[in-house]
Structures are given as structure tokens and as C-alpha cells.
Amino acid sequence: MAKAAAGKRAAEPKVQIGAIPYRHRPDGIVEIMLVTTRETQRWIVPKGWPIRGLKGHEAAAREAMEEAGLLGEVGKKPVGRYTYWKRRTRDFVLCKVRLYLLAVKEQLPTWPEQEQRRCQWFTQADAADLVDEPALGAILRSLKFKAL
User: Fold this and answer.
1) Which residues make beta-bridge pairs with 80?
2) Backbone phi, then psi, for 63, in 5-degree steps?
3) 7, 8, 88, 117: which is deepest, by most CB within 10 A?
4) So what's the pLDDT on residue 89?
């Protein structure tokens, strides 16, 4: 078995669930909402650990609501997966994120993590460029959205 990188333990990746919140502007351009991480303020999509009793797509919708106050229609099938090293206090853990599309209908006036994160709409190309994870950027760049 190959040795893990210094400070990183070799283990099965932990599964996370993520949402790709999107909307169509009046001119037809697709925008994707990104949120910042709590610690480093890097741009990411809303994501988190699976939630007992919820299916993957339901957990993705919950993360989008908690992290950005977003409500909408979530796709039932993942549109992509990527892996990344999650920074923890004393180590790193390898995570595999399953992504679900969320067609945003509204943003609540208040939400649970409003004071801990920033959230902002970006064009699809800008969102793909702003995320640090190359695989996530590639997924965002490759998505095809139905015209309204």
C-alpha cells in the first residue's frame, strides 16, 4: 500500500453531500451560488456530512438552506463527485463529495449559518474559477443547464 502524504492518514474517503445551487438570470445566463468556508473563507459549494434519515439529495438541499438560506428543487441523482482533503484541527481527512443540482426558488431572509459564511452568486465560469478544488471547478464548468 502506498504511504499517505505527511500528516495525512491513508483511509477510505469519508462521504460528504453537496449542493450546486443555481438560477437563471432574466437574460438567460446561469449563476451558481458559492459560500465561504468557516475557517479559511475559501469559496465552495454548500456541503456537509450525510444526515441520518435523509436521502443524499435531501441532505444536499438541507446544507444549502443552512449555509445560504436557499430553497428550491433538488435533483435526485448526483451530477458529479470529487475528492478533497478536509483540514481538521490535528489532521486531514480524505472526503468524497457527491453533488446534487438545486434549482433555487428563493433565499430566506435569515438562516442558521448566516453570520459564519458569506454567500454570493457568480456566473458559471466565474464560480468554476473561484473554487480551489480543480475537480469541483471542472464539474461546475461542464454542467449543462436547460434553457428557460
Assistant:
1) 99
2) -60, -40
3) 117
4) 81
